[in-house]
Amino acid sequence: MDRAPFFVTRWVRRLLVVTGGVYLLQLTVFTSPWLLETFGFAPDLLARHPWSLLTYAFLHGSFLHLLFNMLGLFMFGPPVEGRLGGTRFVRLYLVAALGGAALSLAFAALSGPGIIIGASAAVFGVMLAFVLEWPNAPVLVFPLPVPIRAKWLVVFIAVMSLLAGLAGAERGVAHLAHLGGFAAALLYLRGTSLLRFARRHAPQGRASAVLVHQSGAAEGRVLPFGPPRRHGTAAETLAEVDRVLDKISAGGLSSLTPDERRFLDEMSRRFKQDN
User: Fold this and answer.
1) Please, is 268 exposed, middle or buried when counting C-beta atoms within 10 Å of its C-beta (0-12, 13-18, 19+)?
2) Could you tell me if residue 2 is inside a domain?
3) Can you point out the beta strands (E) in the chain?
4) N or C: which end of the chain has fewer CB within 10 A?
5) Residue that finishes a domain, picked among 175, 196, 217
């Protein structure tokens, strides 16, 4: 069964601190409705408060609301950030939050009146990324006595959110925002993967080298001469180096996959040869 590596990463830690800090401000400084009305997401007020498409994800209605969302981020966020790197992880989190607001806006009649707040859509996007990488990882869910596979947990949440959202149950609970987080995260992850694939396999002008046997006879096989096939152009190679170094900064060398270790070793050898 798949097991995801766990370590508290830089951006997960920052999101936990910022979101918890905002909730403390809600309890102590901004006790009036002004903060929620200004930074919470209300479809009918979007033209006046466009920033609320993102800021709603940092507000919460109760301690339990905050606790469950941050627990999800704490559980699923570190492995995902370790795999994606800090920059892509933050983009994923914000895109999922945007997706939650967008779907709530599209189905405002089903969402019901009121202000939408909470990091659920963003956290559910992170959960989806986790499942795409480690679908069979065991997850303990209270009050179940045994762990279940992560993929079945996400399927259950998605189905229940869809049914509750279409039924208009529990007015004030943004079930469709949860689905928006899932959908936006999936589009983002698949879109970036397709873009990387296209860049790596785009036709490029390359010099060629002919493989010659020890006998001196040339073999009719032409080998590409240039950057590794996996990383494409020099710019993409540098981008991959930056991503790997960012991952090391966030989670240490132990967070690297075998392919990433081999890539880093290859780049190190090239640097030594060139210098």
Assistant:
1) exposed
2) no
3) 138-139, 148-149, 207-212, 218-225
4) C
5) 196
Please state the domain count of the chain. Answer: 2
- Active-site residue (options: 111, 161, 175, 178): 178
The model's pLDDT over 253-269, given as tens digits with 9 standing for 90+, comes to 777 787 788 887 787 77
- The low-confidence residues of the chain, meaning pLDDT below 70, are 1-7, 109-113, 165-174, 194-236, 249-252, 271-275
Residues 120, 161, 231, 255: which is the catalytic one?
A: 120
Q: Is the dihedral of CA 216, 222, 224, 230 positive or negative?
A: negative
Say which residue the tokens 């939408």 belong to.
116
Q: Are residues 192 and 231 in the same domain?
A: no
Report d(CA 266, CA 220) in Å as an integer: 28
Catalytic residue list contains 120: yes
Q: pTM score, two decimals?
A: 0.68
Q: Angle CA(184)–CA(185)–CA(187) in degrees, nearest 5? A: 65
